Amino acid sequence: MIDPILKMGTDSLSNITRCIHIGLLCVQENVSDRPTMSLVVLMFNSPSLSLPVPSKPAFFSFDPEYSSSTKSIRSKQRSSHSSLNDVSISEIVPR
After folding, report:
1. What's the confidence (pLDDT) of residue 65?
2. Which of 51, 61, 62 is nearest to 19 (CA)?
3. 8-state DSSP, 84
4. In terms of Cα–Cα distance, which of 57, 50, 53, 49 is closest to 31?
5. Cβ distance 24 to 57 under 8 Å?
6. How high is the pLDDT of residue 73?
7. pLDDT number for residue 7
8. Exposed, middle or buried, 43 (CB in 10 Å: 0-12/13-18/19+)?
9. Closest CA to 22 of 36, 4, 1
10. DSSP characters over 3-68
11. How many other C-beta atoms can be found within 10 angstroms of the C-beta atom of residue 16?
12. Could you list the mean pLDDT of each consecutive 10-residue stretch along the chain, which spans 95 residues?
């Protein structure tokens, strides 16, 4: 999941893991559990600061059968959903 170029260096893997951890804290389902921006900046600037364990994210979707490309996910969703006017179909595709 991590580009090999980003893994180069002695601390880079721990830095990447920390960034992912902070990102998970920012997308927790309960908004009041999410850190403020000032706290996020403090987390990035203080590597010795202990991070809390993130709770359930607000949205998570993974289908290994269709993870190879976004196009195949969209085509699967279109074929599995129906609409009377072909306008009201919502596509839930993570960024």
Report:
1. 60
2. 51
3. S
4. 57
5. yes
6. 46
7. 72
8. buried
9. 36
10. -GGGG-SSSHHHHHHHHHHHHHHHTBSSGGGSPPHHHHHHHHH-TTSPPPPP--BS-----GGGTT
11. 15
12. 72 86 91 94 94 83 56 48 58 64
Burial class (CB in 10 A: 0-12, 13-18, 19+), 25: buried
76 CB-near residues (< 8 Å, 6+ apart): 63, 66
> What does the CA dihedral 38, 20, 16, 73 come to, rounded to 10 degrees?
-140
Tell me which residue has tokens 């179909």. Answer: 89
- The residue among 19, 65, 62 whose CA lies nearest residue 44 is 19
Q: Most distant CA pair in the chain: distance in Å? A: 56
